[in-house]
TrEMBL record:
It is an enzyme of class 4 (lyase). The keyword Cell inner membrane does not apply. Its EC number is 4.1.1.35. GO terms for molecular function: NAD+ binding; UDP-glucuronate decarboxylase activity. The keyword NAD applies. This is UDP-glucuronate decarboxylase. Transmembrane segments: none annotated. InterPro entries: NAD(P)-bd_dom, NAD(P)-bd_dom_sf, UXS-like. Belongs to the NAD(P)-dependent epimerase/dehydratase family. UDP-glucuronic acid decarboxylase subfamily. Pathway: Nucleotide-sugar biosynthesis; UDP-alpha-D-xylose biosynthesis; UDP-alpha-D-xylose from UDP-alpha-D-glucuronate: step 1/1. CDD domains: UGD_SDR_e. Pfam families: GDP_Man_Dehyd (PF16363). It comes from Leptospira ryugenii.
Length: 312
């Protein structure tokens, strides 16, 4: 049955793909965004659809809307952006989460929180299972995001315990694809944009740190399937469990772009996790979730997108 769905952070990278998918399924979609890292043109194709609305609003302020479901995606995801105003990042994660949980409670909506693999910090367990409690610095430069997201999860479970709010919690691992912003600072967009422009490819540290990269279409399928679960509330890891070093990623991007860029090595930022890879057993068991896009294929599609958008 068609629903009225609120997507906070709807003008952002993942949020805009989610808007598109939920409209395709016949729902009414309200995207809400303060345009910190989101852009109106991510949603351009949707403006003609009468079932779509876009609201400029900041979730750190309360809002009254009548909706059936809330996807709480609002929060800058790139370290460069979330560290640019760390106190605001904390406010978005805590005040914003409280406002959205309050809204869900008032109208009886189901609410899904976009949590993150960062709740595991620099993990001492590998791969990371949902049962792992993490290794997080409380006072470092990543803490506004990591601790903000951890507190947001706590709020979800406390609203469930005290007020029976219908929560779902997903922990997203590094996701990439079309509509990332070129100067967003995340590794996939940085490397592709540098390779296309023939600039040096900036590896932080020696490039031996690992990440597991998920193509956005796979992730969005997992997100919607989690929202539609009747009883399972999470938290559940979502991503792709292929693990690559940052150096392998740089070499892949240079080859696929056919670039003459050279690799240069810059200092590793503080608290940069050494290894990261999701254990996806729970997602497989409960959601029948299986990522389908191999890194090389997703990188090719993302290169195509950036070539077109940088020339536009
Ligand atoms: P993004 O920065 O592209 O999107 C975030 C969106 O939220 C932007 O449109 C931004 O303008 C909006 N926003 C930020 N603060 C807001 C506020 N206070 N009020 C209203 N809107 C606000 O990032 P993304 O990659 O699309 O990430 C979406 C969500 O998924 C985030 O919550 C992020 O923490 C989470 N996540 C993403 C990844 C990833 O690899 N992309 C990994 C883990 C978690
Ligand atoms: N990174 C890099 N060069 C860049 C941007 C990032 O080597 O130009 C590294 C970064 O230090 C980290 C990894 O790539 O080890 C992933 O960084 P990103 O910011 O994309 O995500 P996160 O660290 O939050 O997983």
């Amino acid at each position: 049955m068609a629903k009225r769905i609120l997507i906070t952070g709807g003008a952002g990278f993942i949020g805009s793909h989610l808007c598109e998918k939920l409209l395709q399924e016949g729902n009414e979609v309200i995207a809400l965004d303060n345009f910190h890292t989101g852009r109106k043109n991510n949603l351009e194709k949707l403006f003609a659809n009468p079932k779509f609305e876009l609201i400029r609003h900041d979730i750190t302020d309360p809002i009254k809307l009548e909706v059936d479901q809330i996807y709480n995606m609002a929060c800058p995801a790139s370290p460069v952006h979330y560290q640019s105003n760390p106190i605001k990042t904390m406010k978005t994660n805590i005040l914003g989460m409280m406002n959205m949980l309050g809204l869900a409670k008032r109208v009886g909506a189901r609410i899904l929180q976009a949590s993150t693999s960062e709740v595991y910090g620099n993990p001492l367990e590998h791969p990371q299972k949902e049962s792992y409690w993490g290794n997080v610095n409380t006072i470092g430069i990543r803490s506004c995001y990591d601790e903000g997201k951890r507190a947001a999860e706590t709020l979800c479970f406390d609203y469930k315990r005290t007020s029976n709010v219908d929560i779902r919690v997903i922990r997203i691992f590094n996701t990439y694809g079309p509509r990332m912003i070129p100067d967003d600072g995340r590794v996939v967009s940085n490397f592709i944009v540098q390779a296309i422009r023939g600039q040096d490819i900036t590896i932080y540290g020696d490039g031996s740190q690992t990440r597991s990269f998920c193509y956005v279409d796979d992730l969005v399928r997992g997100i919607v399937s989690m929202m539609d679960q009747d009883h399972f509330i999470g938290p559940v890891n979502l991503g792709n469990d292929g693990e690559f070093t940052v150096k392998e990623l740089a070499e892949m991007v240079i080859k696929e772009v056919g670039s003459k860029s050279k690799i240069i090595y810059l200092p590793l930022p503080q608290d940069d996790p050494t290894r990261r890879k999701p254990d996806l057993s729970l997602a497989k068991e409960k959601l029948n979730y299986q990522p389908t896009v191999p890194l090389i294929e997703g990188i090719k599609k993302t290169i195509q997108y950036f070539k077109a958008s940088l020339n536009a």
